[in-house]
Inverse folding.
């Protein structure tokens, strides 16, 4: 391996300590409400992790678990209650929702000032304009990793593989706001390997285990793996074939222990940002 390893676990731990010290200096404890509908096991793990991290940082975390059969009307009423609750600074509805519930309607019901996921169209619009306020947590986590590792972004060619609303699109907006020349690639992209080989920064967010291999990577490029795929034997693996890419890249994230821990740390940061802005 020639690449520098980007230790997301350590970088996230430092960010969480920084958030905790900001919270301690505030004189009040920002409130984060996490809503889960149903009992998808992966979502339950994420919600518990967010809850624990929030409490460790000195936030007031509350998680609401609604039954899988919750109607759209009841879910919207719950969100309305949280919107009106002055002690709640951040609201997060864990996705995916059970079928029959519209994620768009639910996200649009969240007060944009409390939208710590950065998914509300108002926050998406601000991000697209290049003035992010509450930007999605995973892409923000990636930007924090690049900053911490002193990866040059301005003027660099970056490719984001994947165009989801949660990762790909906001990732491209943040890279663009940092003056990268950005390509968004997706399932219809022609000669993806050649597109990747031109990039100084490759962000993989497609959900296909090991899809990106070392022969797609320009020597010295930075490779960020957002993929979290569970293999048949239970192991977690990314979208990047780590061994072959690490032999070529300049820096690379592992899975697990790369981007994953950053998402939660940035959620805490967004909650503090929302609280400070809301309470003046
Ligand atoms: N499901 C997977 N990632 C996310 C995320 O960042 N936020 C929410 N709310 N749900 C998710």
């Amino acid at each position: 391996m020639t690449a520098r390893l980007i230790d997301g676990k350590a970088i996230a731990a430092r960010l969480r300590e920084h958030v905790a010290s900001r919270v301690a200096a505030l004189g009040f404890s920002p409130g984060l409400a996490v809503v889960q509908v149903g009992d998808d096991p992966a979502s339950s793990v994420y919600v518990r992790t967010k809850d624990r991290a929030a409490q460790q940082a000195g936030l007031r975390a509350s998680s609401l678990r609604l039954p899988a059969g919750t109607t759209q009307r009841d879910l919207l009423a719950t969100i309305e209650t949280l919107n009106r609750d002055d002690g709640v600074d951040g609201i997060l509805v864990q996705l995916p929702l059970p079928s029959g519930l519209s994620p768009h309607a639910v996200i649009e019901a969240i007060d944009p000032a409390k939208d710590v996921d950065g998914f509300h169209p108002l926050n998406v619009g601000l991000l697209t304009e290049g003035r992010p306020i509450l930007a999605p947590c995973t892409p923000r986590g990636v930007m924090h990793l690049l900053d911490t590792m002193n990866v040059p972004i301005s003027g660099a060619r970056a490719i984001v593989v994947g165009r989801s609303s949660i990762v790909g699109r906001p990732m491209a907006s943040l890279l663009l706001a940092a003056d990268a020349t950005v390509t968004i690639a997706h399932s219809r992209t022609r000669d993806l390997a050649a597109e990747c080989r031109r990039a100084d920064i490759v962000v993989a967010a497609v959900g296909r285990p090991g899809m990106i291999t070392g022969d797609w990577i320009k020597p010295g490029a930075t490779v960020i793996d957002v993929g979290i795929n569970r293999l048949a034997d239970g192991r977690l693996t990314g979208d990047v074939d780590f061994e072959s890419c690490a032999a070529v890249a300049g820096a690379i994230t592992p899975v697990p222990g790369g981007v994953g821990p950053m998402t939660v740390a940035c959620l805490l940061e967004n909650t503090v940002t929302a609280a400070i802005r809301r309470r003046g």
Summary: The pocket of guanine is lined by residues 92-95, 117, 137-138, 166, 263 (CB under 6 Å). The two ends are 49 Å apart (CA to CA).
